[in-house]
């Protein structure tokens, strides 16, 4: 087994460095999530230092009572850091203070007993369970970079519950409880340090993802924006030209959308755009490319799709909107789409292809709207 004092010293050094790095990030970016995690690292360092005094001093008030409280505070600070990521830490601050005050009261008469260790272990385990839950709530509905951190929290919580079980069964246990507890303690220190190290890395990855989304996605609907659509479509079209594969493009416009904004307001109009985007996506295959390229205009690229199939898909999209009214704030609003369809011919480029699909769209509007027109 690894030498415990060596593990503790390495953990103190690493957590001090990580905490200093997070403090620098906070000063640079002014994001409170870094400050809370910085505090968590430094508090964990103090907890290890004070707990280590048990081997050299009889000051139980410091080496047991204060150490246990610091061990409890460290994950609470991390939890506040998680909530600070989306500015909801204030709503959880009172709860964290409450947990700390209850711990102050409960541990005071028992700080030098095994009960204090059991209580501290259970509070930490529950804190890590909640931290994993809080991370899951950060990005509902999308794959999150925080999955690795969730796994660390869950493993950490399981270790703490195992430690609690060993503490309860110690008087009657037939296994070497002290040896098992030592292994868990080392695991606790190692995972805590790894967790502190993982957080800034994941925050960087998440920030990069946010920047990528801002550059490529329409903020209202979550679809690709015009620039990203043109870049991605150009690549697919080049492949289709090279290998003479079928490919079609659609241009879609919501009929009389200005009336929706004028009659029901721009908030309702925005919700209608999101609803239409969702309905369109529901009809598409995984490899189809869809974007919002203007106010109420959408574009779709259909790789490996014949003109007949593209026309059939367009009809399904049109009917999905026409046959179900959009309902928002007790308003039932009937919407319809005009759609232009074009197939790839020769060595087309994406701008020419969309221009031809646009002609089909305007022909659909000229013919009375709420229809699909295949451009020639």
Automatic annotation (TrEMBL):
It comes from the Bacteria. It holds the Pfam family GGDEF. InterPro entries: Diguanylate_Cyclase, GGDEF_dom, Nucleotide_cyclase, Rev_trsase/Diguanyl_cyclase. Keywords: Membrane, Nucleotidyltransferase, Transferase, Transmembrane, Transmembrane helix. The keyword Glycoprotein does not apply. The keyword DNA repair does not apply. It catalyses: 2 GTP = 3',3'-c-di-GMP + 2 diphosphate. Its EC number is 2.7.7.65. This is diguanylate cyclase.
